[in-house]
Amino acid sequence: NNRIYRPIYLVRPHTYSTLSNRIVTRPFLSNAEKMFIAHQILNALRHLHDKGCYHGHLSCENIGLTSWNWVVLVDILPEEGRPTYLAQDDPSDYIYYFQERGMGLVKDDVTPTHIATDNKNITNAVKRTGDGST
Question: What is the mean pLDDT of the chain?
Answer without folding.
Answer: 76
